[in-house]
C-alpha cells in the first residue's frame, strides 16, 4: 500500500512547486424539506481555502475570504448570502434551520451576512441569522436565531441567541450569554479599541483573496487541485 501511494504521488508530481488542497463546492442534496438542488454562486475574486466546504444555495460576494476548514452548508436552512469583503475564518460553521428565515430587502434568507463582516476562528453562525455591515463575531462564539446590527462586536466565547435583535454598534463582552431582548437592550456601545481591532482584522483579511489566488494560480479544478507558481 505504501509503495502504491508513493508511486501515485510521484506520478502526479510536476516539475516545480506543487500546491495541493482538497475542498468541496457542491450543490445541496435533494431532501423532503429542500427538494431543489442548487449550486453555490461564488464571485471569481473570492477565495475558498483548503478543506473548506460550500454546499447549496450560497451566494459569495467579491473579495470574500473563506479560510481552511470552514463549513458553509445550505442543505437544511437555505439560502445563504455572504457579502463582499467578508472573511470567514478557519473552522467557522454556517448552517441553518429548516423553514426559518430572516427577511432582507423583501427576500428570505436562512443566513444573511453583510459586507466587511468578520467571523472569527471557530465561530458558529446558525440561521435564522442576520449580521449587519462590519459586524465582528469573535473566536468560538455562537450567533443563533438573532439579528445583529451594523458595527456590533461579539467577543470571544459569547452567545447571542433567542431571537434577539442587537442595535447597531453594540458590544457583547467575552463569554456573555445574550438570550433575551432585555439583555440585548442593555448592551453598551462598541469601545473604540474594539472598533480598531475589527478594522485591523478586516485590513489583513481583505489582502488574502488576491494573494492566495496568486499563490495557487489559475490552473485549478473545482476540488482545489492547484499548481503553484515559481517564486
Largest sheet: 13 strands, parallel
Q: Report helical residue fraction.
A: 10-25%
Number of strands: 22
**Order of SSEs, N→C?**
HEEEEEEEEEEEEEEEEEEEEEEHHH
Mean pLDDT, nearest integer?
A: 89
Distance between the termini: 34 Å
Give the amount of beta strand, in percent: 25-35%
Uncertain spans: 1-16, 227-231
- Structural class based on helices, strands and sheet pairing: alpha/beta
Characterise this structure.
17% of the residues lie in helices and 29% in strands. The longest helix has 15 residues, at 192-206. The strands form 3 sheets. Strands 1, 2, 4, 5, 7, 8, 10, 13, 15, 17, 19, 20 and 22 form a 13-stranded parallel beta sheet that branches. A 7-stranded parallel beta sheet has the order 3-6-9-14-16-18-21. It has a two-stranded antiparallel sheet with strand order 11-12. The protein is α/β, with parallel strands linked by helices and 231 residues long. It is built from 4 helices and 22 strands.
Question: Concise description?
Answer:
With 231 residues, the chain is an alpha/beta fold.
Topology:
Elements (H helix, E strand, L loop, with lengths): L1 H11 L11 E3 L14 E2 L4 E2 L4 E4 L1 E3 L4 E2 L4 E4 L5 E3 L4 E2 L4 E4 L5 E3 L2 E3 L1 E3 L4 E2 L4 E8 L4 E2 L4 E7 L4 E2 L4 E2 L4 E2 L4 E2 L4 E2 L2 H5 L6 H15 L1 H9 L15
Parallel strand pairs: 1-4, 2-5, 3-6, 4-7, 5-8, 6-9, 7-10, 8-13, 9-14, 10-15, 13-15, 14-16, 15-17, 16-18, 17-19, 17-20, 18-21, 19-22
Antiparallel strand pairs: 11-12
Amino acid at each position: 500500500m505504501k509503495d502504491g501511494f508513493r508511486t501515485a504521488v510521484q506520478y502526479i508530481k510536476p516539475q516545480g512547486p506543487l500546491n495541493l488542497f482538497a475542498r468541496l463546492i457542491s450543490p445541496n442534496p435533494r431532501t423532503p424539506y429542500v427538494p431543489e438542488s442548487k449550486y453555490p454562486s461564488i464571485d471569481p475574486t473570492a477565495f475558498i481555502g483548503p478543506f473548506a466546504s460550500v454546499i447549496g444555495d450560497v451566494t459569495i460576494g467579491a473579495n470574500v475570504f473563506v479560510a481552511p476548514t470552514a463549513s458553509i452548508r445550505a442543505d437544511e436552512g437555505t439560502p445563504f448570502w455572504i457579502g463582499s469583503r467578508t472573511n470567514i475564518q478557519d473552522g467557522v460553521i454556517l448552517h441553518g434551520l429548516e423553514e426559518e428565515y430572516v427577511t432582507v430587502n423583501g427576500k428570505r434568507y436562512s443566513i444573511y451576512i453583510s459586507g466587511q463582516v468578520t467571523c472569527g476562528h471557530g465561530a458558529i453562525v446558525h440561521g435564522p441569522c442576520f449580521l449587519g455591515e462590519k459586524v465582528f463575531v469573535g473566536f468560538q462564539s455562537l450567533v443563533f436565531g438573532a439579528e445583529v446590527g451594523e458595527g456590533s462586536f461579539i467577543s470571544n466565547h459569547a452567545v447571542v441567541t433567542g431571537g434577539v435583535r442587537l442595535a447597531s454598534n453594540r458590544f457583547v463582552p467575552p463569554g456573555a450569554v445574550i438570550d433575551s431582548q432585555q439583555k440585548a437592550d442593555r448592551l453598551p456601545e462598541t469601545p473604540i479599541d474594539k472598533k480598531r481591532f475589527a478594522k485591523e482584522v478586516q485590513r489583513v483579511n481583505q489582502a488574502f483573496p488576491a494573494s492566495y489566488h496568486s499563490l495557487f494560480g489559475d490552473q485549478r479544478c473545482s476540488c482545489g487541485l492547484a499548481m503553484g507558481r515559481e517564486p
